[in-house]
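Sharing in case it's useful to others searching the archive later.

Someone asked me privately for the predicted structure of Acid stress chaperone HdeB, so I'm posting the question and my answer publicly. Question first, with the sequence:
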Amino acid sequence: MKTTLSLLLAAAFSLSSMPAHAVKWDLSTMTCKQFLDSGEDNIAVVLTWMDGWYKGDEDNAIIDTEVFIDNAKKFGAYCGKNPTVSVVTAADEILGK
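And my answer, the predicted structure tokens:
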């Protein structure tokens, strides 16, 4: 579990080495296990996307790193305990949309 949380935290701040090829993900069908096994870069992208998606228009262009990291920890813990749940279902549960 600590490894998963550490991976999520490290990934959240390592967006600098993104792949050069285009990839499409259907997050409604991606399981938590697939997410956790997808690698640091992919985890960082998904966490960043979820942060913006669930904020909507209410927070403008503000990233609160304390909230972001707290949500990443919660998301990692939830996914670790529920590996067959979709990433979107997990996000709805954690971020409450």
